[in-house]
Amino acid sequence: MSTKEWLVLIILGFLVEVSTTADPIQILNSSIAVASEGDPWQDMTSDNVNDGIVDYRRTVEKCGCCAALRRPSWVQLTLDKTYLVEKIQIFGRKYDTSFQQFHDIKLSLGRQDQTLKNEAFTTKNQSFAMTILTPPREVDTVRVSDVTQQFDYMTICEIMIYRQADCTPGKYSANCSKECHCLSGPCESVTGNCVTATCKDGWRGLACNETCNPGTFGSNCTNICNCVSNLTCNHYDGGCPNNKCAAGWTHANCSVACNPSTFGSNCSNICICHNNATCYHVDGSCTNNQCAAGWTHDNCSVACKAGFYGQGCSMDCHCDTCHHVNGSCFGSIQCHDGFRMENGFCTNMLEELVLTENRLLTRTTTWPESQRILITMTAFKCQTRRTTLL
Length: 390
Ligand SMILES: *[C@@H]1O[C@H](CO)[C@@H](O)[C@H](O)[C@H]1NC(C)=O
Ligand SMILES: *[C@@H]1O[C@H](CO)[C@@H](O)[C@H](O)[C@H]1NC(C)=O
Ligand SMILES: *[C@@H]1O[C@H](CO)[C@@H](O)[C@H](O)[C@H]1NC(C)=O
Ligand SMILES: *[C@@H]1O[C@H](CO)[C@@H](O)[C@H](O)[C@H]1NC(C)=O
Ligand SMILES: *[C@@H]1O[C@H](CO)[C@@H](O)[C@H](O)[C@H]1NC(C)=O
Ligand SMILES: *[C@@H]1O[C@H](CO)[C@@H](O)[C@H](O)[C@H]1NC(C)=O
Ligand SMILES: *[C@@H]1O[C@H](CO)[C@@H](O)[C@H](O)[C@H]1NC(C)=O
Ligand SMILES: *[C@@H]1O[C@H](CO)[C@@H](O)[C@H](O)[C@H]1NC(C)=O
Ligand SMILES: *[C@@H]1O[C@H](CO)[C@@H](O)[C@H](O)[C@H]1NC(C)=O
Ligand SMILES: *[C@@H]1O[C@H](CO)[C@@H](O)[C@H](O)[C@H]1NC(C)=O
Ligand SMILES: *[C@@H]1O[C@H](CO)[C@@H](O)[C@H](O)[C@H]1NC(C)=O
Known about the structure:
single chain, mainly beta, Jelly Rolls, two-stranded antiparallel ribbon, 28 strands, binds 2-acetamido-2-deoxy-beta-D-glucopyranose
C-alpha cells in the first residue's frame, strides 16, 4: 500500500471517528414537561428545573431559578416523544453547598411504557451531577429523586437533557447503527420511520429497512419477478440470475413482454396464428386457439400430424405424408384408395362424377369395390328424387 493510500485510510478513519462522536444536542425546554412530589420552599417550585436559567453561581434567593422540594421528593421530566438520550446534567447551587442539596439523589430514566431504570452518575459532586449514556438510550422520562429524610430539601437549579446528534440521512437508532431506505428525506431517529412514508425501490416497512419478499421487487415491492425457473430476482431492479428471464419476458428487468409476434424463452419464437394475429407472449397460444393453417398444439408450433393439413389440421390429404400447410402429397408414393395424384395433390375421384339426365357417368378406370357401392346408392337417391319431381 502506498503512503497516499495509508493517508486516505487514516483520514477516512478520522472522519468515521468524528461522525460517531458528534456533540449531543440539548433537548429544548419547550419539549419538556415537569411534574414533582414534595412541597417547595417558598417560590422554589419544580418548574424552575426547566426554566432555562442556570445562574447557580448566585444564591438561590437572588436568582430565583432553582427548585427546592421537601424530602422525600422527586422531580420528573417528561419529553414530548422518545429521544435517544446521550447525556443528562443536573445543576445545583454552586456556592451554597451547606444544604446537602444533592444528598443521596438518584437518577432513573427510560420509557413510560417500560419500567424506569436506575442509572448511576458518571460524575457527581455537591453541586453538579452528570450521566453519559453509552450507547444513547431510548428515553421519554427522566426522574431525579431523593427518598431519604436526612436533610430537609432536595435543591436542583436546572436539569439539562441531551440527545444523540442527528444521524446522516439513511441512518437511525443508537450510534446511528441501523439503516433506513426512504425514497426522500430522513427517517425518524428512534423508529426509523420515513418522514415521507415512501421507500426506495426494493425496500418496505415503515423504516424501509426490509427488502421485498422473495419473488417481488421495485417500488413498494409491487412488481413480480419474471425469472426462469421461478428464481427470485434482484429486489430493487428485478434483474434475474445470469439475466435469464422466464419465457415471454425480456429486458434487464425481465418485465418487458416480448415484442408482438414473438414469444417464449428469449422471445426467440415467432407467433404462428391465423391471419398473422399476435400470440400470447409467454406460451405462443393464439386467440381462440386459431393457429395458422398447418399448425396445431397450444403453442401453434407443432405441425399437423401426418396425413392432415390446413386450418385446424382438419383436412385429410389422403396420402401418408403431405405438406402440413397446403396438403401437397408430393413425395408420397401413392394416394389412399379412391384418390388420385394430380399436380402433387391426392384428388377425390368423386369430384369426377357427373350426373346428367338420370345417368351416372364416371370417368375413372380405377374404381375400388367399396366406393362403387357408395356411388351406386348416391345415384339411386338422385334418381328417386328426380322421379318424384317429374
Ligand atoms: C425555556 O427557557 C426559556 C429561557 O431560555 C424560558 O424563557 C422559558 O420560559 C422556558 N420554557 C419553559 C417551558 O420552561
Ligand atoms: C463540581 O463539578 C463541576 C464540574 O466538574 C465543577 O465545575 C464544580 O466546581 C464542582 N463543584 C464542587 C463543589 O466540587
Ligand atoms: C455504540 O457505540 C459505543 C461506543 O462506540 C459501543 O460501546 C456500543 O456498543 C455501540 N452500541 C450500539 C447499539 O451500536
Ligand atoms: C426495521 O426497523 C424496525 C423498526 O425500527 C425494527 O424493529 C426492525 O428490527 C428493523 N429490521 C431490520 C432488518 O433492521
Ligand atoms: C407506496 O405505497 C404507499 C402506501 O400504500 C403509497 O402511499 C405510495 O404512494 C406508494 N408509492 C408508490 C411509488 O407507488
Ligand atoms: C412459479 O411460482 C408460481 C407461484 O408460486 C407457481 O404457480 C408456478 O407453478 C411456479 N412455476 C414454476 C415453473 O415453478
Ligand atoms: C422495466 O424496464 C422498462 C424499460 O426501462 C421500464 O419501462 C419498466 O417500467 C420497468 N419495469 C419495472 C417493473 O420496473
Ligand atoms: C437466452 O439468451 C442468453 C443470451 O444470449 C443465453 O445465455 C441463454 O442461454 C438463452 N436462453 C435460452 C433458454 O435459450
Ligand atoms: C403474414 O405476414 C407475412 C410476413 O409479414 C406476410 O408475408 C403475409 O402475407 C401475412 N399474411 C396474412 C394472412 O396477413
Ligand atoms: C411447443 O410445444 C411443444 C409441445 O409441448 C414443445 O415441444 C415445443 O418445444 C414448443 N415450441 C415452442 C416454440 O415453445
Ligand atoms: C406447398 O408448400 C410448400 C412449402 O411452402 C411448397 O414447397 C410447395 O411447393 C407447396 N406445394 C404446392 C403444390 O403449392
